Input
Amino acid sequence: MSEPWEEEGPGTIKKFMYVNRKAPYGTIYALESLEVVLIAAAFEQDVSMVFLDDGVYQLKKGQETQGIGMKNFSPTYRALEGYDVEKLYVEAESLAERGLSEDDLLVPVEVMGREALTELMEEQDVILSF
Amino acid sequence: MKYGILVNEGPYQHQASDTAYQFAKAALDKGHEVFRVFFYHDGVNNGTRFGVPPQDDRNITTRWTEMAEQHGVDMVICIAAAQRRGLLDEGEAKRQGKDGDNIAPGFRISGLGQLIEAGIQCDRLVVFGD
Output
């Protein structure tokens, strides 16, 4: 049985951007956003992920969640490359405001200023913000 | 215009689900197509038929059901988010060995692929939530 989206046939490739703005724990937004990205990888769209505001904490190295009794899902970000999700952007201002630098992050990313990020967003077809 | 709508917040606790409804209704009234409303995060709770708001208040779930019935709008609840939060349709209740189901008429449970499909097929995918 074919999935509903397969009936469309090949052809439509849109630019999908997933914007992550929330800290990894405390709310479920980050985890459920990651689930969307992993499912979306099967659709072979042009995918990028942006981390800004407290969302930059999602990529922080050395997450240790035992104390709060939650699953540490941060290793999944390292697996994204295997799903062909390779375009990760982090907003420079958000990093700086939180006293973080690129060295604090657990995956390679492109750090980008707010203005350049705005331009990148302008180019997208679909922006999902979590 | 062909719209997809993503609702990321639960009913009654956040304006997002009300605003999403008002937006969808306004779009339909103007002759646009609402291809699908996708409920994610706590947004899945929009689709429980067990909600009993006070009589002088709006019934958010009933409103969505009426929209689905009157305009043929596809109302999809994310299965992963729904399972975490105790929303089950009949088939899923049986599979999970639960003694009841609680999805309101007009809603259906499906996967995140339905969200991505809406992003691909619609002219605009509009996100409601924090």
User: Anything to note?
Assistant: The helical segments of chain B are 15-29, 60-71, 79-85, 90-95, 113-121. Chain B touches chain A through 20 residues (CB under 8 Å). The mean pLDDT of chain B is 97. Residues 2-128 of chain B form a domain with the Hypothetical Protein Ychn; Chain: A, fold (CATH 3.40.1260.10).
